[in-house]
Amino acid sequence: METPALPRRLALMAGCNQLINWGISFYMPGTFALAIAADRGWSSPQIYLGLTLAMLVMAAVSPFVARLLARFGGQTVVMSGTLLIAASCAGMAYTQTLFGWYCAWLVTGIGMRLSLYDALFAALVNLYGQQARRTISRVTLAGGLASAVFWPLGDALLQVMSWQEALRVYALFGLLSAALIRMLPRQRLAVTTKVVAPPLNNERRNGWLYAAFIALITFVSNGTSTHLPEFIAHFGLPVAIGMLWGLGQTGARSLEVLAGARLTPFKLTLFTALAMPLCFLLGMSSALFAWCAAGFVLGYGAINGLVTIVKATLPLELFSTESYARRTGVLLIPGQLMAAASPFAYAWLNKTLGIAGAMWVSTCLTLVIAGLAIAIVRRPGRQSVSQCIQSATLTNGYKTPPPANISDT
Question: Could you give the CA distance from residue 53 to residue 25 in angstroms, rounded to a whole number?
């Protein structure tokens, strides 16, 4: 029995779902924080603490996602998460207290973990195996436009209505997003063949390396992006330079989609990790040449765009597709905790060491990240998963066996 082909419209529908979900959750405070602060009298840290709480909830919920996907299927899980985000937007519009604000963000955190990239990608891999890789790349291409769409959209809404009314509009967008994901099949495919897993020691080693790699790269990427406006202002550049970040992110993902099977997850991981320290060295040269700052914003935006794809596709090479959801559900927890801590950590670094000192710390961390990437790519038995899948496929009589490298689909 062959794995069914991916529906042509699924990438578009799932991409629009992710664009909306990211826009009405993660990127919402960036637009509404000032209006909320002026109306409620809350400070900016108090407002953004809600997002931090949501990230912590994401880490707490993460181990259960694989079981939810197995029991209820991808459509139900992702749609439920989307509806939770929509409900929390509506709840935030009516809350009068910080306690209510934080409670709404706790609900948002559950919804984000069930409906953003990680859960959706696990559902796609459960359903379509190695075929899901190209769809994952296309979905990230659409999702990467969330800030470019929802930041100006949110600002435009605030020009004609209150932030409470704008949040209700966001809740309606959430309902639209839930309708878009109905195209995703409800049940995961039954596994008809048993794929021999790599040796246990290799699996453990791969897991530790992947978890450490993703945790560090998330810490640097999230901390850098959160405080990007401070970096731009430090070198006296116009705020509009920040648009280069989104341009680099979308451009890099577009090139990855165009590269297709020629750019395997291993090659992409190595390229992204090795480019990071070079990019930060360019950023540290901004004190001498202003154009270096603009180059850093563009370059690291591109790297940040590729990191999302690396996080989703690298496990396809390290583990069997059957264990994708279960393993990523656990191994992404350190990264989610680092994502929650990074804004505060980088605020402390910028205050204590200055922008230049924080850049040096980031550069040192990227050298560790590059070392982890090299260790992952050069690990013992690198092709074991791909070879096992091919062997099992041929043994069970598929008409058209998949290629030896699972990233070539």
Answer: 13
